[in-house]
Amino acid sequence: MTLDKHLPPPGTAGRPRPAVRRRRGTVLAGISLGYFMVLLDTTVLSVAEPDLAASLHTSVAGLQWAANSYTVVFAALLLSAGALADRLGAHRVFRTGAALFAVGSALCALAPTVGALIGMRALLGAAAAACVPSSLALIGRLYPDRSQHARAVAAWAAISGAAVATGPLAGGALVGAAGWRAVFLINVPLGAAVLALTATRSLHCPRGDRQLDWPAQLAACACLALVTDGLIAAGAAAWPHTAAALGGAAVTGAAFARLERRSTAPVLNRALLGAGAARAGLAAGAAVNFALAGSLFVLPLLLTDRGMSALETGLAFLPLTVPFAVNPPLTGRIVARRGPRPPVLGGLVLLAAGGAVLAVATWARAPYGWLAAGLLLTGLGVSFALPALVTAVAGAAPPGAGGSVGGILNAARQTGASLGIAAMGAPLAAGTGSAPWAFAVAAVVCAGAAAWFGGVQRR
C-alpha cells in the first residue's frame, strides 16, 4: 500500500495530520457505504415481494428463488472471497465487486422474467461476497494502529444496523412510488458513490500468492443450492423433485468433503471447525439468520394479505428493525463486562419467543399489536445475539484460526438465511393459512441452537 508519503512525521504516529484524517475518513465512508449497499439488498427486497409476484406472475417458489439466488451464492463464495482478496489485492476485489453490484442491480431492475431476475440476483450475490471480506482487509490497511482500527471497524459495523433498519421502510417507500424495480435502481447511485469515494492510490494493496481450490468451492455452492431447491420443492409437494435435489445435495456434499480432505488450500478452516464451542457458535449464527431472513420473506406476504400497502408494510416492520440501530452499544457493554454467553443465549431465547408469538398471532389472525410484539422480540433477539457471536466464535477459535472467523461466521449466517427462506417459505406454498408453521419452525430452530450453545458453554 502507498500511504507512506501521507504519514505524519516520526514521533506523531498516533496523531495523523488533519488532512490525512479527512482523507482516511472519506475512504472509510466509501468502504462502509459498500457494506451498507450489500446489506440493504438483503432486506429492501422483502417489502417488494407482493408487487414483484404480481408483475412477473410468479409463485411463492419463484419468490423464494429470487431471494435465495442471492444468499446461496453469497454464502458459498464468502468462504473463498477472503483468499481471493489476498491473492489479487483487496482494493481490486472490493472495487470490482462494487461495480458489479451496481451493474447487476440495474440488470435486475430491467429483468423481464423471474428467471432472468434469479440469474441477476446470483450475480449480485457474487459481487456481495467480493465486497465484504475485502472491505475489512482495506480497513486494516488504512488504519494500522490498533485503537484507530477498532474505532474504524466499529463505524463499519454500525452501518449494518442502519442498513437493516432502513431496508424495509425504504423498500416500502420505493415500491409505493415506482414499483418493485425501484428497489434495485437505488443501488446504481450507491455503487457509483462507493467507486468515487474509494478512487485513491492509498488503498492499493500488493498481490499475494494465496491459493484457491475452485473445484471444492463450486461443490460447496452446488450442495447449498441443491439443499435449498429441495426444501422449496418440498413446500410445493413436488416430491420427485425434492428427492432428486436432496440426492444431488448428498452427492455434491460428499464430493466437497473428499476435495477438502485432499486440498492443500481447503475452503473451510479445519482448526476452527474442530473446536466444539466454535461449531456451536456458527450454528447459533445460522439459526439467527434462519429466523430473520425467513421472517422477512414470510411477513410481507401475510401483511399484504391483510390489505396493507407496501409503505404500510415497511412501517409495520419497525418493531423488528429499530433494535438493530439502537441496541448494539448495550450488547457491546454486556460483552465487555460479562462475556458473549449471556447476550447470545438471551438473544436466541428472545428469537424463539418471538417465533412462538408470531406463530400464535398468525394462527389466531390477531390484531397487528400481537405481530408487533413478536417482531420486537425477534429484533431484540437478533440485535443481542449477532454482535456477541463474533466475540464468542473468535474466543473459541484455536491459535492460528482467528483470521478465518469472520468469513466462516458470515458464510454460516448466509447459509442459515438461505435455509430460512426455503424452509419458512415452504408452508406458504399451501396458502397463507399455513404461515403459523413457518414461525413455529423458526422458534424450534432457535430454541435448539440455544440449547446447544448453552450446553457447550457450560462444559
UniProtKB/TrEMBL annotation:
**In what way does this protein cross or attach to the membrane?**
Multi-pass membrane protein
Has UniProt tagged this entry with the keyword ATP-binding? Answer: no
Instruction: Kindly list the places in or outside the cell where this protein is found, as annotated in its UniProt entry.
Output: Cell membrane
Q: What is its main location?
A: membrane
Keywords in alphabetical order: Antibiotic resistance, Membrane, Transmembrane, Transmembrane helix, Transport
The family database entries (Gene3D superfamilies) matched by this protein are listed as:
MFS general substrate transporter like domains (1.20.1250.20)
A UniProt-annotated Pfam family: MFS_1
Q: Which residues cross the membrane?
A: 25-45, 65-85, 97-118, 124-143, 155-176, 182-200, 212-232, 280-303, 315-332, 344-364, 370-396, 436-456
GO CC aspect terms: plasma membrane
Q: Which GO terms describe its molecular function?
A: transmembrane transporter activity
Flavoprotein: is it a keyword of this entry? no
Any single GO BP term: response to antibiotic
Organism superkingdom = Bacteria
Q: What is this protein called?
A: MFS transporter, DHA2 family, methylenomycin A resistance protein
Q: Which organism is it from?
A: Streptomyces qinglanensis
